[in-house]
């Protein structure tokens, strides 16, 4: 007999919210959702009510990041906006006009070695990637431009993941062509170029277990690792999924599981150790699931770490799985 998929612990809905494109937790008991309409909704997970919502712009919110004192949004088209926390609301600090009309999402990296510096990586025009110091408005923006004439034609950047290895900061970036470049951020030098998957939509990597996962419009998830210390990317095994298309993959920080958010509305949970499928969550029945987020600590109401998922059906599902 087939095992029935588990149920969410709760589903958040608001008639004003509509489709959700991005999620992030703030201090575990608050969850922010970026919508198709260009608004941000703040949900209080102690009451499961929307405590606040405000408009950022008219374009969908592609990604959200929350630091202890700031909110960073990325709109479709690439515009980055920073907000400070002012009382019970958010106050706009500055915007950086964007010129990226693909689907690549920004990524926030908080340093763990020597510094807690917060760097925002965001897609720019063509193949370029911007690196912004979130906490220091005066610091110059670094640009990662793959302009070596010996490089293959890359196309636009489609996904990336910053990570630290041996106290060095790297960025793994995927491009339309299927090539993945690994950048050494301190020197701005490309240390590896390898062809993996065309039009990759999402990538995540865990440096502790030295394994990552790539999703794309295909019906395959591709695992990979790095050969250290040369930082050469090694392609691993493929995982087949029933229906093609993945918007997002997320490895949980305890390295027990990872999840994929599908175009088919399915959330697939896999063991990170064995890559074996564990569950298929079917709560979202209309349209794709756009984003996933994990709380870093237990959410007080559920006394457990929570995974949040959201997409085109206008609900945010909350899950307590394999903790």
TrEMBL record:
The keyword Metal-binding does not apply. It comes from the Eukaryota. WD repeats lie at residues 307-323. It comes from Drosophila gunungcola (fruit fly). It holds the Pfam family WD40. This is Guanine nucleotide-binding protein subunit beta-like protein 1. Keywords: Repeat, WD repeat. InterPro entries: WD40/YVTN_repeat-like_dom_sf, WD40_repeat_CS, WD40_repeat_dom_sf, WD40_rpt.
């Amino acid at each position: 007999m087939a095992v029935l998929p588990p149920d969410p612990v709760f589903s958040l809905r608001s008639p004003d919210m509509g489709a959700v494109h991005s999620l992030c937790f703030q201090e575990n008991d608050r969850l922010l959702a970026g919508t198709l309409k260009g608004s941000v909704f703040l949900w209080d997970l102690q009451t499961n009510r929307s405590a606040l919502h405000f408009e950022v712009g008219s374009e969908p919110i592609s990604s959200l990041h929350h630091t202890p004192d700031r909110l960073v949004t990325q709109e479709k088209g690439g515009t980055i906006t920073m907000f400070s926390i002012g009382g019970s609301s958010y106050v706009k600090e500055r915007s950086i006009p964007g010129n990226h009309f693909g689907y690549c999402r920004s990524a926030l990296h908080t340093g763990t070695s020597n510094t807690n510096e917060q760097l925002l990586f965001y897609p720019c025009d063509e193949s370029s990637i911007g690196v912004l110091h979130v906490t220091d408005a005066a610091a110059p923006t670094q640009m990662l431009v793959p302009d070596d004439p010996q490089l293959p034609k890359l196309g636009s950047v489609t996904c990336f993941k910053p990570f630290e290895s041996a106290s060095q900061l790297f960025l793994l970036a995927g491009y339309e062509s299927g090539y993945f470049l690994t950048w050494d951020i301190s020197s701005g030098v490309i240390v590896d170029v390898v062809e993996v998957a065309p039009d990759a939509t999402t990538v995540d990597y865990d440096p502790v277990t030295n394994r990552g996962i790539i999703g794309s419009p295909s019906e395959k998830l591709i695992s990979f690792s790095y050969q250290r210390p040369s930082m050469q990317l090694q392609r691993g095994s493929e995982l087949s999924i029933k229906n093609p298309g993945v918007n997002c993959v997320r490895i949980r920080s305890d390295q027990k599981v990872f999840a994929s958010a599908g175009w088919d509305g399915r959330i697939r949970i896999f063991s990170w150790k064995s890559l074996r499928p564990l569950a298929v969550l079917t709560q979202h029945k209309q349209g794709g699931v756009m984003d996933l987020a994990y709380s870093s600590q237990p959410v007080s109401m559920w006394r457990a770490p929570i995974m949040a998922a959201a997409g085109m059906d206008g609900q945010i599902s909350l899950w307590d799985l394999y903790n």
